[in-house]
Every structure is written in structure tokens, then in C-alpha cells.
Amino acid sequence: MATLEQAKVAVRPSTQKRYGRLLVPGLLVLPSLIVLLVFVIIPLVFMFRYSFYRHGYLVVMEPAFTFENYIRFFTTVFYLEVAAKTLGYALIVTVASLIMGYPVAYFLSRSRTRFRPLLMAIVIVPFTLSLVVSAYGWLALLSQNGIINWFLTKIPFVDEPIKLAYTPRGALIAMSVNFIPYQVLALLSAISNIGRDLEEASYNLGANRRQTFFKVLLPLSYPGILSGCTLVFVLGLTAFIAPRLVGGASMIMLGNLVYDNMIVYLNWPFAAALGFMLLGATMAVFFISNRLLRLEFIERERGLR
Amino acid sequence: MQEQTKVSDVKLEEVKKVFGHITAVDSVSLHIKEGEFVSLLGPSGCGKTTTLRMVAGFVYPTEGNVYIGSKLVNDVPPYKRTCGMVFQNYALFPHLSVFENVAFGLRVRGVKGDEIRKRVAAAIELVRMSGYEKQYPKQLSGGQQQRIALARALVIQPGVLLLDEPLSNLDAKLRLQMREEIRDLVKRIGITTVFVTHDQEESLTIADRICVMNNGKMEQVGSATEIYEAPQTVFVATFVGITNLLEGRLLGEANGGLYAVESKQGIKVIARSAASEPPKLGAVAISIRPEKVCIGRDSPKDATNVLGGRVTSKVYLGAIIRYRVAVRDGLEFVVEQQNREVEQLGKGEEAQIWWASKDALVVTHK
After folding, report:
1. Is A73-268+277-304 CATH 1.10.3720.10?
2. Are B105 and A215 inside 8 Å of each other by CB?
3. What value of ipTM does the predicted structure carry?
4. pTM of the predicted structure, to 2 decimals
5. Cβ pairs bridging A and B (under 8 Å)
6. Three-state secondary structure string covering chain A
7. Yes or no, beta carbons of A200 and B78 under 8 Å apart
């Protein structure tokens, strides 16, 4: 009898606990789930439907079920070129921001300076800046008599200012620099997790700075590199303000096509189709990076079975 | 291309390291001979690790010179020194297998193929870890990681082996076993070894010579026997083992290298000094090890340095019995008696304690 009593007593709190385990987190995520559903998921469903509508003469769109928007994209050389350039630009800004961000992240994670909070603030400030404001700022920096050209003309081989404002070059510089904070924040935690003693062990075993970087630091900061690059690559793919304002008329990325079809040509079905292609691309990037990261974790945790 | 690095000696000359306004190491001079096993012993923050890191090259001395072999290495970066180091938490590369961890130092030196396989296998064999080559550091226990760290440091055939508190992360039983193992291995190879520890027992049992450090300064260097039996400073006497310390002042030299000291409580003691230079008149202290003090109801007629007191506590420790005896003016002596002695005293009993003058040591405040 006694054991039965005890069993009842033992069961009750555990079932309660199980409900509680689901209930509390469920309630906590509910508000954001509702917001997400109403303002993101449902509009996306509508947009997906619109991508099969038809753009008519004198009408923005009329209900239909046609693949012509997608077919138009894949059969027009111009659009495919834009897609290829978009990928290329995104890749360039990803690599450039990684190269510029890594030393910053390394310094911030290793230095014991008391100015660290200030330096962190400097890294984060660009996030608070409107993209449009930053674009006009970049135009000032990149102009013929701007500060960047002033520096460039000091280099012996550069005789006259290089045209940077309103060129893809300039936009790529602006985007690369704008994306550094994302790389820094992603790398910061990864590098902080690499013990200083691992670097010292590497030096101790005879590896110089270059060898230590490539054989110890770089492989161990791989998760941070992967997440930072994923983020920046996706931001690069979907960029449209910097290409338009800094890059000038000759720089067209997928984001600009979407914008133009939406606002200028009022071809909403095609804009929706383009938008979904872009969304598909970014989802693919996230998917691949997730797989790579998971592989990395499996590799690392191999021993913990 | 088996490059056999010669075992080197290590010489520190008036080495000083200042971080900001903290002097971590202050004029340390030490010559570690080829093949010698020296331990740097001291409490945390005494500068022992900084000293080791100056030999490894991770810290450059503010003043003074560091020599490895006959070469002045003050400005030589760590990757150009021939020191193998075992870190406190081993610092094995988590992304590399055991084999690749050990091979690391060879690969960066451009050793190739068969040569690598042969030397890595030999090093892993040396630490009795054959069969674990494909495992990753996380899969290994603390003791196994320790061995791999040792193999990784030794495979590059360094002239000096540096061990930074290598046993502190192991459990007590394993610590004893690894202590023996490290000592055997190091002696078999005959490599010069510097071992940093805060554990005096570890230091006394493992090293040929012990360098006791405190507040960045070297207190005393000597064999385990010298450090324990003949401490020269108050710090060494109290840090290594337990001792009875009587603060007082030196009155003058008695006959035969013995000195007369009067304690604060007014006890006159004849003691010897272990220092090379005779102690100066003035404030000194007397150190008498508990096991050197005899205890009984009555002292023998020929006994010297006899004090009367009362037993305030008695602890039975099996092989020995530890008494606390209140002598006078708050002065308390710890006395250890071998279990085989007949006469045991009880708590509260009147007792007499005495010791031989050669067992009382004049120690100075450094």
C-alpha cells in the first residue's frame, strides 16, 4: 500500500512538470509567432500567389496561373547576367569584409585594453546608421576630391583620382566596409573560444605567425567564419540601396530589379517572382551553411559519444 | 634528416620582468645545468610561471639575460627557441587527431612522410599511448591528454623541456602516477627540465634541485634535503613543510658556527645558520621542525634547549602523534612524536620539550 501511495505522489509532479515544460516556453514565443505569421508568413503566401499572376496592359496585375514570370527570368540573358553579377558582388563583399573584419575581431578578443568597450561601440555604431545616410556618406568619401582619392593619389603609381563614386567599384567598397561589423561580431565569439595557450603551443612547437594562423587560428575559427560569411553573403545578395545610390545606373543587382519592377514598371507579378527567386537563393545559402556547420560540429564532437 | 638537438643548459642572469607597475620577477639568477631537473616552487603570483614563460619566449624580460645553451635568447621569438613546453591545461589542438597533434611540430619544420610517421610513432610509444593515434583530444582522459602533450613537446627533440603545473588538473591518484612517469621519462631521455609547481611535495619528490620563489624573488635554491633541512629564509622554512617559528633577534656568534638568538618571549636559543654568509645582528627568526623536537614528562639530563609547557592538543595520525604544547606568552610548539616511543602524553599534561642546537636554524626575513 505504502508503495502505491508513494508512486502516486511521485507521478503527479512529474506530469505537471512536463506540461509546464511546454506551456511556459510556448506562451513566451506566442506573441512573436503571431507577429511573424501576420506580417511575414501570410504576406509571403500572397506574394507567392502573385508571382503566378499576369501583368496586364494598364493593370498592375490580374489573377491568373501562369509560369511566364519565371520563364521570362530564366530565358532573358539580361536577367541571368544580373543574377550572376549579384552572386559575384555578394561573394566579393563577403570575402573583403571577412579579410578586413578578421584582424579587428582578433584584436578585440585578445586585447586587454581598457578601451575595449569603446572599441566595441565603434564596431556596433554602423548598425544604428540608416543605409541611405551611410550611402550618401560614402559618396562624399568616394568622390573625385574625397578622402579616399586623396589617399590614393599619394601612392606613387596613382597619378589622378580614380572614379569611385557612382561605379560598382565604389559600391563594393562601401558594402564591404558596411558589412565588417557583422563579420566582427560573428568572429568575436569564435576567436574568444580559442585559448591563447593554443597559439602559444603552436609557437612553442616551432610554427611562426603565418603557420600558426593557417594551422591553428583559421581552422578553429571556422564556425565564426561560416556564420559571418553566411550573414554577409545573404545581405550582399539582397542589397539594393548601396548599389543604387553609390553604384550608380550601371550597377544593377537583383534587389534593384525587384525595386524597379515594383515601383517603376508596376509589374508586380514579375517583381514577386524575382523576390521569390532571391528568397530561394538566400534559403539555399542558409541551408548549405547549416549543413557545413553541422558537419563541423559532428567532426568536433566525435569524441563525446 | 634527423636533426638531433643537443640538450641545453638554461641560464638566467639578473632577470627582471615588470608588468605596468607590478614587478612579477625580480633579479632572478639561476643556472640550470644540462640534463638537470629543476623545479620552480612558490605560491601563486610568486613569478614562477612568468620565469618559465621567459625561458619559453612568451614573455620578454624587462632586464637581464636569458641563455639557452650558450645562445642569448632575449629577443628570439618562441618559435625559434628549442623548448618543448607542456601547458597547464595541455593546450592540445582540438581540431587535430592525436597523431596530428604530435606531428604538428615536425610538419611546421618541413619533415615529411615516413620520417614523420616514424618519429611520431616513437614519441607516442614513449608515453605509452600507442593505439590512440586516430582519437581526438576530447576523447582522452586528463592523464592521456597529459601524455600526448608530453609526446608533442618531446617529438621535436627540444633542448629544454618546460612543464607548467602539468599535474594540477589531475586527480590525486593520477597525479602521483604521472609524477613518477614524468620523472622516469625525463631522466631516461636526459633532457634539461624546468618544472613549475605550487605543490611542495611534488617539488621535493620530483626535482634534482628546487628553486623556491616568493614575491618575484628567488628565496633559496637547493636539493630537497637542503630546502627542507636547511632553510635560509623565513619564507622557505614556513612554505616547505611545517615548522615552529620563533621571531627574535640575533645576539651574536656562539662557538663553532652557532649563534645565540633571543626570542620575543625571552627564550634564549642556540642555533646554526645554513646561509653561506653569517647572519647579521638584528631581527631574525628560529625555525625548528616539529619532528626534531622531543617531548616527555622529564627531559634527559644531557638535553639542551629545554622548555616546559602544557599539552593543549594531541592528534593521533597513525605513524606519528602530533602535540601542541603551549610554552609561554602565547607561544605554542608543534611537536611530532614517532609512534614507537613509549611515553605518550595526554592533553592538559605538563610536559617538557627539548631539541638539539643543530636542529634549530637561524632564518632571515628576505
Report:
1. yes
2. no
3. 0.86
4. 0.83
5. 81
6. CHHHHHHHHHHHHHHHHHHHHHHHHHHHHHHHHHHHHHHHHHHHHHHHHHCCCEEECCEEEECCCCCHHHHHHHHCHHHHHHHHHHHHHHHHHHHHHHHHHHHHHHHHHHCCCCCHHHHHHHHHHHHHCCHHHHHHHHHHHHCCCCHHHHHHCCCCCCCCCCCCCCCHHHHHHHHHHHHHHHHHHHHHHHHHCCCHHHHHHHHHCCCCHHHHHHHHHHHHCHHHHHHHHHHHHHHHHCCCHHHHHCCCCCCCCHHHHHHHHHHHCCCHHHHHHHHHHHHHHHHHHHHHHHHHHHHHHHHHHHHHC
7. yes
